[in-house]
Specification:
- The protein contains 19 helices and no strands.
- By secondary structure, the chain is an all-alpha fold.
- The chain has a single domain, classed as Na+/H+ antiporter like fold, CATH 1.20.1530.20.
- The longest helix has 29 residues.
- The radius of gyration is 21 Å and the shape is globular.
Amino acid sequence: MTAFDLSVRFFLQLVVILAACQATAWVFRRLGQSQVVSEMIAGVLLGPSLLGWLWPAAQAYLFPQASMPILFSVAQVALVLYMFLVGLEFDVDLLRARAKSAAFVSAAGIAVPFVLGGTIAVWLARRPDLPAFGEGVSLAQAVLFTGAAMSITAFPMLARIIHEQGLSRTSLGTLALSAGSLDDAAAWCLLAVVLSAFGNDPSIAVTAVGGGGLFLLFTLFVLRRLLAPLGRQVKGPGEMSASLFTQVLVVVMLGAFVTDALRIYAVFGAFLTGAAMPKGAFAEELRGRIEPLTVGFLLPLFFVYSGLNTRIGLVASPTLALVALAVLVAACLGKGVACWAAARLSGESHRDALATGALMNARGLMELIILNIGLERGIIQPTLFTIFVLMAVVTTLMATPVFERVYGRRATREAAAVRGFDVG
């Protein structure tokens, strides 16, 4: 395809993606689901699982393989900008006050599902009738990867639910965002260890863990002070110049580049730079400029792109159904129950602990990312990939209803009304 052909196809993709997301959002909003779930489902519906099955010619025309790098790049920009907005609302001072609780919840959310995932890996490795792992993958590598896949949290989804419910500046929101960000950063570092073991290159793990820690410290203690003077340039609406706005975008993209290069994913660099930005009028002006286009137009591309790479339909036999059920139960016990227990032991109320566990239990598209890496590297086979995708979809669908059941829809609406958010 020529560059012109790709351009024409890309604009058609935008029309179809946005229309599909709006249609599914209308349906799932009435089922009590967050908008992010509807966008995830829209991606699956537009991919090979439904459209490609019902009308393969149309699916191939709409989303040719040659256009995927373009869609991927735009989707990454969307996710980076959104996570910057999430970080912009993040209260670093409140994090310091709740660092112990966040670290404890995150540790439980990593350790328990990792052990359960490793146990499942040992079980699957001893089942010759179920080709779960790639040829040449050792038991240790299988355990490490499965544990990492079980430990991941849907951080972007968690952040979006918190944002949509207007809870970003509350105690619960800060705990969930803090624990979720620590949880996913640790899981990505763990993935780097897995990949280094698989490729015999320990420098990848050292770079991810060491570099990520240094960047976190730099952001919290150096970048935050360097950016403070920018906040004094904006004292009210409309006072941010185009030049200053561009400078902020440069900082955001640089942060995303650093963490992406360190193998801990671009969203964390964007989140940390957002957290380091001055608050008050400066932050509100940034939000007013970035949020409408990002949330309404760009962000759906990320979720749809990930859905296009998902194939659901391989789990049919009783044996595979049993494996899928075991993975789902282990995932819910390992993440949701463990995070609830850790939050309670940290002194959180029963209600906030249950809400935290419900949010941390969602795997979402971060899970799909790590699974695609494993499939591409030959660590897991398509059957296990599909089983874990099913687990990711179910835990993601559970998140909002369980959260609202525990925390209360009325309470979240009142919080949103106070903070000016529309939760539908």
